[in-house]
Amino acid sequence: MGYFTNLFNAALGKPAAQTFDLSNMSPDQVREFLRIGGSMETASGVSINESSAMRVAAAWRCVNIISGTVGTLPLDLIRRVSEQVREPARGHPLRKVLTVKPNQWQTPSEFRRMMQAHLMLRGNAYALKATLSGQVVGLVPLHPDRVEVDQLDDMTMRYRVSLKNGQYLTLTGKDVFHLRGMSLDGVKGLSVLSHMRESLGLALQSERAGARLMKDGQFIGGTLEHPNKLSPDAYERLKASVSDRHSGADNAGKAMILEEGMKFNKVGMSAVDLQFLQQRDFQRYDIAMFFGVPPHMLGATEKQTSWGSGIEQQGIGFVTYTLNDWLKAWEEAIKRDLIAEREWETLDARFYTQGLMRGDVKTRTAYYIAARQWGWLNPNEIRALEDMNPREDEGGEEYAVPPNTAGAVGMGHNGGPPLDEGEGDEPPQPPRD
C-alpha cells in the first residue's frame, strides 16, 4: 500500500500546487469553477446533476447496462508477435494495471464501470497515470467536474485539476489517461447529461407528480347517485354494506344492493390521466435514445415484440452500434495514453466481445460447432475458452478439414483424400443393377 501511495504522491508532486485566483480567470473558467458540484436548471423547474439524473429509472438502467458491460467484458493487453500471431503480453506492467489492480482500492471492473459512467454522463473520463521507469503502473481516477482541459498553441493538452483544498494542479497530456466521448472540437467530449437535462427534468417532475397523487390524490372507482335526499337509515345501511360486503380482496366482484332508486355510475380514466401515463412512458424511450440502448432492455416492450428474432436483432444492434463504439474508444485511448510510442507496433488492448455469449448456451454451442467444423479452432482451444483443461489424447490439437471443399486443389469430395488425375471430372453415376 505504501509503495502505491508514494507513486501517487510523486505523481501529484510534479506540478506546483496553486490557489484559485478568480481575477485572472476568463468568464468561461469562472462559470466552470462555480459549476463544480453544482447542477443545471431545466425548464421543468428541477435541477439536474449526476445524483438527480440517476434517480430516473431509465437513466440508471442505461448507464448501468453499458458501464456494467464495459466493466465485465474480458480486456487484455495483446502482443503482436507477427502479422498472424498474437499472444498475451505476459509480464508487461500495464497488463497488471488493466487486468489485476489499476490502483490500491479498485478492481479492474470497478475502475472501468466508474470511468464509463463518467464518460456517459459527462462526456469525459480522466485518470492520473502513476509511472515507474517510463511504464504505467497505476491509474488514479479524477472526477470530470474537477478537471478542465484545453489545447495549447503547440497542440499539446493541458489539464487543470482542482483539489478539495481549493488548490489546483496543472498536468500535461503525458500525465493523464483521457477517455473522450463524442466531441465537436476534438478536445473535450460533449456532456450527455447537459444535453438530455430537459428529458431528465421532465421525467423527474412526472415522477414527483405521480408521487404527490399517491399521497394527496383521490382514487374513485365510481359514484352513487340518488334522485333525492338519502334517508339516514338508508345511509347507515349503505355504509355498513360497503364496509362489510364490498371492502377487501375477498369481496371483490360482489353485487351492490342499492335502495330508494339509487344508481351506480362508474368513473373511467380521464384523457388527462391517459396523457400523464403516456408522457411517463414516452420519457423511457426518449432517455433510451440518448444512450443508444434498445427499449426492451429497460423493460419497455409495449410497442414491439418481446419474443423471437425481434429482440434478438435489437440485441445484436446494441452490440454493433452502441457497445462497439465505447469499446473502440477504450482500446484506442489505452494505446494512445498508456502504451509507450516505441511499443505501438507490437502492443494492443483488446476487449473480447465473445464474453457476451456467456449466458447464451445455444449461441455459444453453435459458434463452437462452426469453429470446429470449419477448422479455425481445435478441441483444446475450444475447451480453453470454456475454462476446461486440454484433452489427454493427441486429438485435442487436431484441426478438422473443412467440409464442402469439392474443387479445391489437392482435395477430394467433402474434404476427403486427394483425387487421382482425371478422377472427379464427371459427376458420379448412380449404381447399376
Description:
The chain has 433 residues and is an alpha+beta fold. It has helices spanning 2-12, 27-35, 50-53, 57-72, 93-99, 108-122, 192-195, 197-216, 232-245, 271-291, 309-338, 361-373, 379-385; strands spanning 18-19, 40-41, 47-48, 75-80, 86-88, 124-132, 135-142, 147-151, 157-162, 167-172, 176-180, 222-225, 263-266, 347-351. The strands form five sheets. A four-stranded antiparallel beta sheet has the order 1-10-9-8, with no helix packed on it. The longest helix has 30 residues, at 309-338. The termini are far apart. Residues 1-8, 10-20, 269-276 and 409-425 have low confidence and may be disordered.
Based on secondary structure, the structural category is alpha+beta
> What is Rg?
32 Å
What is the global morphology? flat
> Beta-sheet strand percentage?
15-25%
Query: How would a textbook summarize the main sheet?
Result: 4 strands, antiparallel
Q: Helicity range of the residues?
A: 25-40%
pLDDT < 50 stretches:
1-8, 10-20, 269-276, 409-425
In total, how many beta strands? 14
What does the average pLDDT come to? 76
Biggest β-sheet: strands ordered side by side in the sheet: 1-10-9-8
Distance between the termini: 86 Å
In N-to-C order, the SSE pattern is HEHEEHHEEHHEEEEEEHHEHEHHEHH
Number of helices: 13
